[in-house]
Write a structure and sequence with these properties.
The protein is of the alpha+beta class. The protein is built from three helices and three strands.
Length: 85
């Protein structure tokens, strides 16, 4: 079984082939073979996807009634994570 290691950040304009991409080991030592390959990320794509997802989530939540199960679950989680410090 192999694992994916952190492969780093690379912007699209600097050559990132996609949002997530494989980063091959720089050497062929046994250590690198055991670790598998790395997973790189294009950060601006990640941020755009995150912003789109958050926008869709809140637009959907806004369409729910205040006493709906989704609204209650959101409120409970929001309070636990952000207000109970």
């Amino acid at each position: 079984m192999t694992s994916a290691d952190w492969g780093g950040l690379l912007h699209r304009e600097d050559g990132a082939p996609s949002y997530l991409f494989e980063v091959l080991p720089k050497t062929t030592s046994m250590k690198d073979v055991c670790l598998g390959t790395g997973l790189g990320m294009a950060p601006r794509d990640f941020i755009q996807d995150f912003q789109n997802g958050v926008s869709i989530f809140f637009a959907t939540l806004r369409g729910r009634k205040a006493d709906s199960q989704e609204a209650a679950r959101f409120d409970k989680t929001f309070r636990r994570v952000f207000l109970s410090k």
